Automatic annotation (TrEMBL):
This is Protein-ribulosamine 3-kinase, chloroplastic. It catalyses: N(6)-(D-erythrulosyl)-L-lysyl-[protein] + ATP = N(6)-(3-O-phospho-D-erythrulosyl)-L-lysyl-[protein] + ADP + H(+); N(6)-D-ribulosyl-L-lysyl-[protein] + ATP = N(6)-(3-O-phospho-D-ribulosyl)-L-lysyl-[protein] + ADP + H(+). The keyword Transmembrane does not apply. The keyword Hydrolase does not apply. Belongs to the fructosamine kinase family. GO terms for cellular component: cytoplasm. GO terms for molecular function: ATP binding; kinase activity; protein-ribulosamine 3-kinase activity. Residues 3-36 form the DC1 domain. Initiates a process leading to the deglycation of proteins. Phosphorylates low-molecular-mass and protein-bound erythrulosamines and ribulosamines, but not fructosamines or psicosamines, on the third carbon of the sugar moiety. Protein-bound erythrulosamine 3-phosphates and ribulosamine 3-phosphates are unstable and decompose under physiological conditions. Pfam families: C1_2, Fructosamin_kin. Its EC number is 2.7.1.172.
Length: 454
C-alpha cells in the first residue's frame, strides 16, 4: 500500500497488514486499527491526534456483553463473535497491544472490517478507496480500551463473522430493517436482560450463558397462556432459541413502564379475571416442566389438587432440602403435614386456574398508562389461592384483595390455607438462598401440625 494514504490520528502511512477504520457517518475519516484501539485515540475534527479539552474520557466500560461470547463494542455498530482456543501464531497480532494472539491469552475477538482510506490527508471523496482487512484483539487488552465523550467518529463499520440468532430473528421475522441501539437493562440473579431498539419496534431479550432453551421455553409457554386470556397485560413472547456459543435466549415484546406503582385494585381485578378465564380441561399441572427461580417445577398433570400440591410442590421442595442440606427434620415434619392437610380443603370447590406462579413485587410493574403488567412467570394450572403464595414480598393491600374477591369469590377456610401456600415459596427460598428462610418454613409447618393435631 502506498505511503500516501495517511492515518487521521498518527498521520503515518496506513499499513495494509493491519487495516484501518473509517467512520460510517463521516466519510472523510480513517485511522489505523491499532490507533483506534490505543488509549490515546480520539475523535476530533482536526484529525491531528491531539485531543481538544472538550473531548474527555468517560468512566464507562468499552463494551457490552450481549451473550456468551458475543459483545457490542463502542467502536462499531455490529456484534463481535468470540473466537476461542487460537493456536500460537507469530504472524497473527493483536492490534491493541501488537503481541501475538495465543492460547495463553485464552481467547480473542476476530472480525472483518470494511475500511476506507484518504489520499494525502485531503478530504475529497473521489480519492477514497475501499479495502478489507482482518482485525484481532486479545482479551488481555480489550478491557482497557477507553470510551470518548465525542460521538462524531465512533460508528465504524465492522460486521460479525458468525451467526447471531437474536439479530437474525429481529431483522427477519421481527420485520425490522436496522437495530439502532442495544442497552443492557440488568436482570435477575439468573439471566441477563437487554433492550433492542430498531427502526420498527423494540424488543426485550433475556439470555442465559449456561442453561439450554428448556427454561425459556417454559417461560414462553406461560407468557403465551396468560397473553391468550386477554385479561392482564403480559409481554408477548416471540422467539426462544439456543445461542451458538452455548446457553439460550428469549425475545419478547418490550413494554415501557411508567413511574407509578399504579392501582392495586386494578391489579387485583385483572388477576382475578385471568384466573377466571384461564382454565384447563387436563387438570392440575402444565404442558411442560418449568422453573421457579432456578428450581425445577414438576408439572405432570393430575386430577387431584391436594395430591398435586403435596407431591409436586411441597414434597419436591422437602426432598430437595433433605438431599441438599441433610435436613431430615424439616423433611419428616413436612411430610406429616402433607399426609394430614386434606381437612384444610373441606367444602372448597377447586378448579384448575391459570396461575402466574411467582407473583411478587419484582414481577409486577405498570405501563405508561398505569395498567398492571406481570412478568417472569412460573405458570401452571392450580388452585387460584396458590397465586398469593408470594404475598409476603408482594405488598398486596386491602384494595387488591377486595377487587380480586369481587371477581373470584373468597372460599370457606381461605385464611387457614393462606400459610400453606406461603410454605412452598419459603421452602424454595430455603433451597435457593440458604438457612435464613428455614425458620419461617419450619414455623409454618409446626403451626399446622398443632392445628391439625398431627
Amino acid at each position: 500500500m502506498s505511503n500516501e494514504w495517511l492515518c487521521g490520528v498518527c498521520r503515518k502511512s496506513i499499513d495494509g497488514d493491519y487495516g484501518a477504520y473509517s467512520c460510517n457517518k463521516c466519510s472523510d475519516y480513517v485511522v489505523h486499527s491499532r490507533c483506534a484501539l490505543a488509549k490515546d485515540v480520539w475523535d476530533g475534527e482536526e484529525l491531528e491526534g491531539v485531543p481538544e479539552k472538550d473531548y474527555t474520557i468517560q468512566d464507562v466500560k468499552p463494551f457490552d456483553m450481549i451473550s456468551e461470547g458475543v459483545i457490542l463494542h463502542f467502536l462499531h455498530d455490529h456484534h463481535l463473535l468470540l473466537e476461542v482456543n487460537i493456536l500460537y501464531d507469530e504472524k497473527k497480532l493483536c492490534q491493541a497491544c501488537d503481541l501475538p494472539i495465543y492460547e495463553a491469552h485464552m481467547s480473542g475477538i476476530s472480525m472483518k472490517s470494511t475500511f476506507s482510506l484518504f489520499y494525502g490527508g485531503t478530504h475529497h471523496k473521489q480519492e477514497k478507496k475501499m479495502a478489507m482487512a482482518s482485525l484481532s484483539i486479545c482479551f488481555s487488552t480489550r478491557s482497557n480500551l477507553p470510551l470518548y465523550s465525542s460521538t462524531r467518529h465512533r460508528n465504524f463499520v465492522i460486521a460479525a463473522m458468525s451467526e447471531d440468532p437474536i439479530r437474525e430473528w429481529i431483522l427477519t421475522e421481527g420485520k425490522s430493517n436496522q437495530i439502532t441501539k442495544i442497552s443492557s437493562i440488568g436482570g435477575g440473579c439468573i439471566n441477563l436482560a437487554s433492550h433492542y431498539q430498531t427502526d420498527r419496534a423494540s424488543f426485550f431479550v433475556k439470555t442465559n450463558r449456561s442453561i439450554g432453551p428448556e427454561m425459556f421455553e417454559g417461560e414462553a409457554l406461560g407468557l403465551e397462556a396468560m397473553y391468550e386470556t386477554r385479561t392482564i397485560r403480559v409481554p408477548k413472547p416471540h422467539k426462544v432459541g439456543a445461542l451458538p456459543t452455548g446457553g439460550s435466549y428469549i425475545i419478547m415484546e418490550f413494554i415501557e413502564f411508567g413511574g407509578s406503582r399504579g392501582n392495586q385494585a386494578e391489579l387485583g381485578r385483572k388477576l382475578g379475571e385471568m384466573h377466571k378465564a384461564g382454565k384447563s380441561s387436563k387438570g392440575f399441572g402444565f404442558e411442560v416442566a418449568n422453573t421457579i427461580g432456578s428450581t425445577p417445577q414438576i408439572n405432570t398433570w393430575s386430577s387431584d389438587w391436594i395430591e398435586f400440591y403435596g407431591e409436586k410442590r411441597l414434597g419436591y421442595q422437602l426432598k430437595l432440602a433433605r438431599d441438599r442440606y441433610g435436613d431430615s427434620a424439616i423433611y419428616e415434619k413436612g411430610y406429616r403435614l402433607i399426609q394430614n392437610m386434606a381437612s384444610l380443603f373441606e367444602n372448597v370447590v377447586i378448579e384448575p386456574c391459570l396461575l402466574h406462579g411467582d407473583l411478587w413485587s419484582g414481577n409486577i410493574a405498570y405501563d405508561k398508562n398505569s395498567e398492571p403488567v406481570i412478568l417472569d412467570p412460573a405458570c401452571y394450572y392450580g388452585h387460584n389461592e396458590a397465586d398469593f403464595g408470594m404475598s409476603w414480598c408482594a405488598g398486596f393491600g386491602e384494595s387488591f384483595y377486595n377487587a380480586y374477591f369481587k371477581v373470584m369469590p373468597k372460599q370457606p377456610g381461605f385464611e387457614k390455607r393462606r400459610d400453606l401456600y406461603l410454605l412452598y415459596h419459603y421452602l424454595n427460598h430455603y433451597n435457593l438462598f440458604g438457612s435464613g428462610y428455614r425458620s419461617s418454613a419450619m414455623l409454618i409447618i409446626d403451626d399446622y401440625l398443632r392445628l391439625l393435631k398431627a
